[in-house]
Design brief:
The complex is a heterodimer of chains A (515) and B (499).
Chain A lengths: L11 H23 L2 H28 L16 H22 L15 H9 L6 H17 L3 H19 L6 H33 L4 H10 L4 H19 L7 H8 L2 H26 L4 H24 L4 H21 L4 H31 E3 L2 E2 L9 H4 L1 H15 L5 H15 L3 H27 L8 E2 L3 H19 L2 H12 L5
Antiparallel strand pairs in A: 1-2, 1-3
Helix pairs in contact in A: 1-2, 1-5, 2-3, 3-5, 3-11, 3-14, 3-19, 3-20, 5-6, 5-11, 6-7, 6-11, 7-8, 7-9, 7-10, 8-11, 9-11, 10-11, 10-13, 11-13, 11-14, 12-13, 12-18, 13-14, 13-17, 13-18, 14-16, 14-17, 14-19, 14-20, 16-18, 17-18, 17-19
Chain B lengths: L3 H18 L3 H24 L9 E9 L4 E7 L1 H20 L3 H4 L4 H20 L3 H10 L1 H11 L4 H30 L6 H4 L6 H18 L8 H8 L2 H26 L1 H27 L4 H21 L3 H32 L10 H4 L1 H14 L6 H16 L1 H26 L15 H19 L2 H30 L1
Antiparallel strand pairs in B: 1-2
Helix pairs in contact in B: 1-2, 1-5, 2-3, 2-5, 3-5, 3-12, 3-15, 3-20, 3-21, 5-6, 5-7, 5-12, 6-8, 7-8, 8-10, 8-11, 10-12, 10-13, 11-12, 11-14, 12-13, 12-14, 12-15, 12-21, 13-14, 13-19, 13-21, 14-15, 14-18, 14-19, 15-17, 15-18, 15-20, 15-21, 17-19, 18-19, 18-20
Classes of the chains: A mainly alpha (515), B mainly alpha (499).
């Protein structure tokens, strides 16, 4: 043993989906370095889409060939039922977001040029583009895949950074309203760095308590270690802060509206769907696997966070005049609804049903969100997207189909029956009532009613107001059209025939997280 | 296995898709009329085969929808649901005919209006035919959306305010009901949402009270019962006349139907406990609605407030827990649909001619438009329950039935009958009698289409006034069954007090 280092066992087969994405990202970087400028875009587009599709196929293949019962890669990564389901969801949502990225005109010509400077003019006239967005997006997606699957806190921290750093950068690359975009990037970066520091400090404290960063070992040590409870509680709280920040739960929600507003809309779509799904996966793993034995301590706090998140999101959304900020607050409120599912724990069977409810909700919400942001990209003024809500007035008369589809997404967010959002909410509420969290469900229901107000307000604007004389034009590039169609289809199908996806989520959740 | 009810839901849905796809507006209207008449014929053919003393639910269908949650696409009708489906099926073609030129004044698509109308018809039939509590909830919420767009896109000046108010009130009630639906499912623990599986599954009285409130508030907002009524005058006054008829005539009946079907049968102990409260609210509603109606200056708002008074009678009948009152209330739901529908439509014709909803802008209309005025009078007299017209029978039954069990409430409620005479006759006097106002001198009497709209309504009002027996025969067994559980509870509590 002395002097010899044993090579770690890595189950490459199990990690294949992640490796494909990371591999493609690295090839993307090489393309940036070596391929001539005019070729880059036409290499990146198929490469990115193919790698995501390939990773998805591998995920499906793995799910079909049997779900492993042990963590992989020396216990660092857990490729279990929930992880595979989340991977599949993230990969599809990322694929769809990349379709949005593919359509021209979202990204800055030259990020280093000062907004409004001659340099920027030149870059614009040359038609320069930042094709780096493709490898950056792939790295972010790779991080999203690792984050919910990480089985020890260090791997999870690495995933958190791999996911976040490219996103910080991507946020600052919007073509229009560049100052806002750069402001968003700086805010996101600073606050994100803080939250990462919290996460890391929490990891260190828990290591001090349990002597391990492995989630299962921390979970096992909960009853066994005595006299170190201070370390445990502070460590758990800090981990919680780091994770809740990524979800955008109140009181750590402040970054969300600014970042969603400033980022290029396709990136907002990727963050609002993919990051949320990944972060919930990680949150569940930490709180259910590592801190499962501590539930009496953290559930009351999580109750409070859930209530605060739902109420904050729903109420602050009412006053928004920017469509993307409104969707950001709506996303905060939905984060709160999802947190209801996180506290709906009990015995094994109850946990499985809460988990499958959450997984279904994440799929339903992810698709509708990407669809909604896709529509946001199509409604344009001379200066880019028509961000101010008043510009959307009368869209129903100008472009009935676009307005109808957007209204449909909003109704899905509001949770009207026969849309996917309804069954998502229903599943989570049902699990919570079964777990005895009925008061939380009542708060959830009241927040839904408040939230319905601002969704409906947009519908009123679009359909019941007269269009302005110089209203925005609607431009629907091919990729965006496909995204809109796919998201509509998903929202209808999950709202009318949810059973197949429910079955899938149920199967994925059956064995819970591996330890 | 029958396919009657799924056909009745499917035909208008397919019709709506077809109407939305037709390019020609006239063709779209004709198609809508044809589809709604087809639905009417099918409904009548089905209704004839209904055997009043047969099974509780007939024409049942049951398909598994979402097995994970125990949700079925379960359909079936008893006497109560049957007459309400008949009411919907009769009203829709009339509304289609009445709305022939409705959407043209607005700026939005005519085809859309008629497509929404057919979607709404499918959902109205679905909500009454659902035998699965969850399916009922789905229809209950989903039917808001077409009505919301009908008010918001095609209504009067304040339409978007009214539409949003309508939607948010109903949605809020619906969400409270959702919590109760989920809790009911959890507590019953039968793994099924079928109504027949859930009846009698909640034994604990404390739990029943909470669940009862969850359902009841949703229905009270829908009905609307005082003090949850404030959305109705706005919505009804701003909605286009045709939509107002369906809103007040059918959609609001879902509230009273829900009380009778779900509140009483699922939670009999809680229903018994809350009876005094509901009766007080009903009586307040009867008197309050009538007094406020007298003070209205806007014709459509006036009619809306009379409905609040009438809904007070219906809820009183439902919660009086006597067979007479219950059957009367159910019959009242039907009669109110026809007589208020006629009032709204004829007032709508008048408003369309003059362009004003205000009573003060009219006067002496009967000299220039005698048929319009005459039919308005008949509808109004039915509204104030004149003997020989339909509402009389039902109002009388409600009052007699309530007197049997709750005499004091019945006596106070009777004042509503007197007040009804004031608001109807005073409105008639101010608009139709007296010297002809300058502004209405040139208006024309009802044209051929409008006569076809009004004639069936007046015919039904008179027919049901003299011969309500066929409907009552269908209603009675179902109502008896519905309230028997609460009567049982009541007898038990009386017996306990006696000991």
């Amino acid at each position: 043993m002395n002097g010899t280092i044993q090579a770690p066992t890595i189950e490459y087969g199990l990690l294949a989906p992640m490796l494909v994405v990371f591999g493609a990202a690295i090839i993307g970087v090489l393309v940036e370095a070596f391929a001539p400028r005019y070729l880059r875009s036409s290499i990146h587009k198929p490469l990115t889409l193919l790698s995501l599709a390939g990773a998805f196929v591998l995920t499906i293949w793995q799910a079909r060939s049997g779900i492993p019962t042990k963590p992989a890669a020396m216990g660092a990564v857990a490729v279990d039922g929930p992880a595979l389901f989340i991977w599949g969801t993230i990969l599809v949502l990322a694929f769809v977001s990349v379709l949005l990225i593919n359509d021209e005109g979202h990204f800055v010509a030259s990020a280093s040029a000062v907004p409004g400077s001659a340099e920027e003019e030149r870059a614009l006239s040359e038609g320069a583009t930042h094709t780096e967005v493709y490898p950056l997006a792939l790295f972010a997606v790779g991080g999203m895949l690792l984050f919910p699957a990480a089985n020890d806190l260090l791997a999870m921290f690495v995933a958190l950074e791999v996911m976040s750093l490219p996103l910080y950068l991507l946020c600052g690359l919007a073509r229009r309203r560049r100052l806002l975009s750069q402001e968003a990037a700086v805010k996101y970066f600073l606050l994100g760095a803080f939250s990462s520091a919290f996460f890391l400090y929490g990891t260190a404290l828990l290591y001090g308590y349990a002597g391990s960063v492995d989630l299962a070992k921390i979970g096992a040590s909960l009853g066994a270690v005595g006299g170190q409870d201070t370390l445990l509680y502070i460590g758990a709280a800090m981990l919680g802060v780091g994770l809740l920040f990524k979800i955008g739960a109140a009181p750590f929600q402040a970054w969300k509206p600014d970042v969603y507003q400033g980022s290029p809309t396709p990136i907002t779509a990727l963050m609002a769907s993919g990051t949320l799904v990944a972060a919930f996966g990680a949150l569940l793993r930490v709180f259910w696997v590592a801190l499962g034995g501590l539930e009496w301590s953290w559930t009351p706090i999580m109750w409070g966070v859930a209530i605060l998140t739902m109420v904050t999101g729903a109420i602050l959304a009412i006053t928004q005049t920017d469509i993307k900020r409104m969707l950001a607050y709506s996303s905060i409120a939905h984060g709160g609804f999802l947190l209801i599912g996180v506290v709906a724990i009990g015995n094994q069977q109850q946990n499985a049903s809460a988990l499958s409810a959450l997984l279904f909700y994440l799929v339903a919400y992810g698709f509708t969100t990407v669809g909604a942001f896709a529509i946001v990209t199509t409604v344009r003024d001379a200066g880019g997207e028509a961000w101010h809500l008043s510009r959307w007035a009368g869209l129903g008369k100008r472009r009935p189909l676009v307005a109808t589809v957007f209204a449909f997404f909003l109704l899905a967010f509001a949770g009207i029956p026969l849309t996917s959002g309804f069954f998502g909410k229903y599943a989570v509420f049902q699990a919570a009532v079964d777990a005895g969290a009925t008061p939380l469900v009542v708060v959830g229901v009241v927040s839904s009613a408040v939230a319905a107000f601002f969704y409906v307000r947009v519908i009123v604007l679009m359909f019941f107001s007269d269009p302005a004389a110089d209203g925005p034009s609607v431009v629907i590039p091919g990729g965006t059209w496909a995204v809109g169609a796919l998201a509509t289809l998903a929202t209808v199908v999950l709202g009318v025939f949810p059973q197949p996806v429910l079955d899938l989520a149920h199967t994925a959740a059956q064995s819970l997280f591996v330890r | 296995m029958h396919y009657w009810l799924s056909t009745l839901i499917g035909v208008p849905v397919l019709g709506a898709l077809g109407v939305a796809a037709v390019k020609n507006e006239l063709r779209a209207k004709q198609a809508t009329l044809a589809v709604s008449l087809l639905v009417l014929v099918l409904t009548v053919v089905m209704a004839v085969q209904f055997s009043p003393n047969g099974d509780k639910f007939q024409f049942t269908e049951k398909y598994s929808w979402v097995p994970s949650f125990g949700i079925h696409f379960g359909l079936g009708v008893d006497g109560i649901a049957l007459v309400l489906i008949l009411l919907s099926a009769v009203l829709v073609p009339i509304v289609v005919l009445a709305s022939w030129h409705e959407a043209e004044a607005g700026k939005r698509s005519v085809r859309m209006y008629f497509a929404l109308l057919l979607v709404l018809e499918a959902m109205m039939i679905g909500v009454f035919a659902a035998t699965d509590v969850f399916l009922f909830y789905v229809f209950f919420e989903a039917m808001l959306i077409p009505m919301y767009f009908m008010i918001g896109s095609y209504g009067g000046a304040q339409r978007s305010y009214a539409a949003v108010k309508f939607l948010l009130y109903s949605l809020f009630g619906g969400l409270l009901m959702l919590v109760a639906v989920i809790a009911l499912y959890s507590i019953a623990d039968k793994g099924s949402f079928m109504f027949t599986d859930l009846v009698g599954s909640v034994q604990d009285v404390g739990t029943q009270k909470w669940l009862f409130l969850g359902f009841f508030i949703a229905f009270a907002i829908k009905a609307p019962l005082w003090p949850f009524h404030t959305w109705l005058p706005d919505a009804a006054a701003q909605a286009p006349a045709g939509a107002a008829v369906l809103l007040v005539g059918v959609l609001d009946k879902v509230g009273t139907y829900g009380m009778l079907r779900f509140c009483l049968e699922l939670f009999p102990d809680a229903a018994h406990y809350f009876t005094p409260l509901v009766l007080v609210l009903s009586v307040v509603g009867i008197v309050y609605g009538a007094i406020v109606a007298i003070g209205q200056t806007d014709m459509k708002r006036l009619i809306a407030y009379t409905s609040i008074s009438h809904f007070g009678f219906i809820t009183m009948g439902v919660f009086a827990i006597s067979v007479n009152a219950g059957s009367g209330a159910t019959l009242y739901m039907v009669n109110h649909g026809f007589s208020t529908g006629a009032l709204f439509l004829i007032a709508g014709f008048l408003i369309h001619r003059r362009g004003s909803q205000y009573i003060s802008d009219y006067g002496g209309v009967q000299k220039v438009a005698p048929i319009l005025a005459g039919t308005f009078l008949v509808a109004g007299l039915s509204g104030l329950a004149l003997p020989g017209l339909s509402s009389f029978v039902s109002e009388f039954m409600v009052l007699i039935g309530s007197y049997e069990t709750h005499a004091v409430y019945a006596i106070i409620a009777t004042s509503g009958v007197v007040l009804a005479a004031i608001y109807i006759l005073w409105m008639y006097q101010r608009t139709m009698n007296g010297p002809t106002a300058e502004s209405v001198r040139d208006i024309k009497d009802l044209n051929g289409r409008e006569k076809w709209v009004v004639a069936p309504l007046i015919a039904v009002i008179i027919a049901l006034g003299f011969f309500p027996k066929p409907l009552l025969d269908v209603i009675n067994p179902a109502v008896t069954d519905s309230i028997s559980q609460v009567q049982h509870v009541k007898q038990e509590s009386v017996a306990q007090e006696g000991q």
